[in-house]
Specification:
It contains 10 helices and no strands. With 187 residues, it is mainly α. The chain starts with 6 loop residues before the first helix and ends with a helix.
Length: 187
């Protein structure tokens, strides 16, 4: 995962030499998930932080086999593109956990992947929010490096829209901070 580039940045015009790896993204997502978990726990919410970290660490593991498949690539496949990506990633995930040769870990890791995909538990929603917040952080970083705002504007606005529905107070607060930071960068 250290050498697999996040392809969505490439399709948005970021130079391959500047593109973060899947491992970079996963580490940032884990860090954000931990921060959100701690902030939510301080607010009095019950959070299983170990579960959050397990979900965050494993959320893109299938990309170690499938690489990072950009949504832009899926457009060429039409309406079935998202389903093909999902099936491919699920097959890769199954291949990875089958290779553990450990039924207990197989069940545990498979359950984590299903939980993340379903996005119904508080912990999985925290990780999904952290995953999206990392995109915003990376957009800010690319803007800092001189990439024009218009190149990443659709990704920024789409991610903001998705985050609004997360219903996690700490994640929404971080989002507001990032929006403020991005506005400062423009002036």
């Amino acid at each position: 995962m250290k050498s697999i580039p996040r392809s969505g940045w490439i399709t948005h015009g970021v130079s391959l030499q500047d593109v973060e790896s899947v491992a970079d993204h996963s580490f940032s997502t884990c860090s954000l998930a931990l921060l959100i978990s701690d902030l939510e726990a301080q607010r009095g919410e019950h959070v299983n932080i170990e579960r959050v970290l397990r979900l965050a660490l494993l959320h893109d593991l299938s990309e170690s086999l499938t690489f990072d498949i950009s949504k832009a690539y899926l457009e060429y496949l039409g309406p079935r593109g998202a389903a093909i990506k999902r099936d491919l990633e699920h097959s890769a995930w199954k291949y990875i956990v089958d290779g553990l040769h450990n039924p207990k870990l197989h069940r545990s890791y498979s359950a984590l992947q299903k939980e993340f995909d379903a996005e119904k538990t508080f912990e999985s929603r925290i990780v999904r929010a952290a995953d999206r917040l990392d995109i915003l952080l990376q957009v800010i970083e690319y803007r800092r490096r001189g990439y024009p705002e218009y190149m990443l504007a659709d990704l920024w606005s789409g991610t903001i829209k998705k985050l609004r529905s997360c219903r996690i107070q700490s994640a929404l607060k971080i989002q507001r901070i990032l929006i403020h930071e991005a506005r400062k960068k423009r002036t």
